[in-house]
Design a protein that fits this description.
This protein is an all-alpha fold. 59% of the residues lie in helices and 0% in strands. It has eight helices and no strands. The longest helix has 19 residues, at 60-78.
């Protein structure tokens, strides 16, 4: 648990989560022990290898993702850490790889993509963290499955296998970072 908590702390620090008003900056890595324990709880085992092609209408995996997000939020609140959507989704992306990190650039990228789609009359999805957005991302993955698998294969030649939601995160983050240029 110590090592996993330390890894989570360094991952979050490397992505800028140890600054600002979250209160993480005033905490040491053991603050993440309860979060790590929850991530490894048996009830969330299916989230470690979600098959986004197999999620059905009931979306039990989707419900589990959002239940886990809610629990992480509650745990951080008890620890006097501000559990923003960005923090919670970065934890989920960096550990389970089951959801993108809903940070400013990702949200800007989805917003930009949605605006571009409005001209094509295609289905868009909310840019803010929530079940409708997540379902939209799953549909986005399914519509672009071959491109995702090609990108995954290309990157894996360099020794890293990215989950599809990390690839979605990278795609929309990249769009969002280009908007301000």
């Amino acid at each position: 648990m110590e090592i996993k908590s330390l890894h989570l702390a360094f991952y979050l620090a490397s992505w800028g989560m140890y600054r600002g008003s979250s209160n993480l900056l005033q905490k040491d890595y053991p603050v993440h022990k309860q979060i790590v324990a929850e991530l490894f709880a048996q009830k969330y085992e299916a989230l470690w290898n979600i098959d986004f092609d197999a999620i059905d209408e009931n979306g039990l995996e989707i419900n589990s993702v959002f239940q886990l997000a809610k629990t992480i939020t509650q745990l951080y609140k008890r620890l006097q850490i501000s559990p923003t959507d960005t923090l919670v989704t970065k934890v989920l992306l960096g550990t389970l790889g089951c959801i993108p990190a809903y940070d400013t650039l990702f949200i800007n990228g989805v917003t930009y993509w949605n605006q571009a789609l409005s001209n094509c009359h295609k289905q868009s999805f909310p840019a803010r963290f929530g079940q409708n957005s997540y379902r939209g991302l799953i549909d986005f993955y399914r519509e672009n499955r071959e491109d995702f698998l090609d990108a995954q294969a290309y990157i894996s030649k360099r020794g890293t296998i990215y989950p599809v939601m990390k690839l979605a995160d990278m795609y929309f983050w990249s769009l969002g970072s280009q908007i301000g240029r």
